[in-house]
Amino acid sequence: MDELEQPAESDDATATADAPSSDDTTPLEEALAAAESAARDAIERLRTALLASDPDVAPEMVAGETAAEVEASFAVAREVVDRLREKARRDAAVAVPAGAPGRATRAPASALEKIRAGLGRM
After folding, report:
1. What torsion do the CA atoms of 15, 20, 23, 28 make, to the nearest 10 degrees?
2. Half-sphere exposure of 82 (CA within 13 A, CB side)
3. Angle formed by the axes of helices 22-53 and 67-95, to 10°?
4. Is the pTM of this model over 0.70?
5. pLDDT at residue 121 above 90?
């Protein structure tokens, strides 16, 4: 039993010896927090710049925790906007004919011409 207890005690001693002291982690933690904050700020600036480059993209469609995620979501949002633009362009082309409407034929002026025109349509 002593053999089993001894390695456990030595593991605890090793773990305690390997752990950095609280004095060492404070500057490291501060540096890490500053780096993470700078990264978040850079990602937010990237998101803002991408949204400014195409104002038709809805800001809700662009999200992510990393630059790659933000760029990927912006690419997807831009594809959606492009598809909607193309669909609107196609729908507008069908709904509104280009140019002035065609001219109507001249209606007959006299009663006899009206009768002939009516009989000609039969």
Report:
1. -140
2. 6
3. 10
4. no
5. no
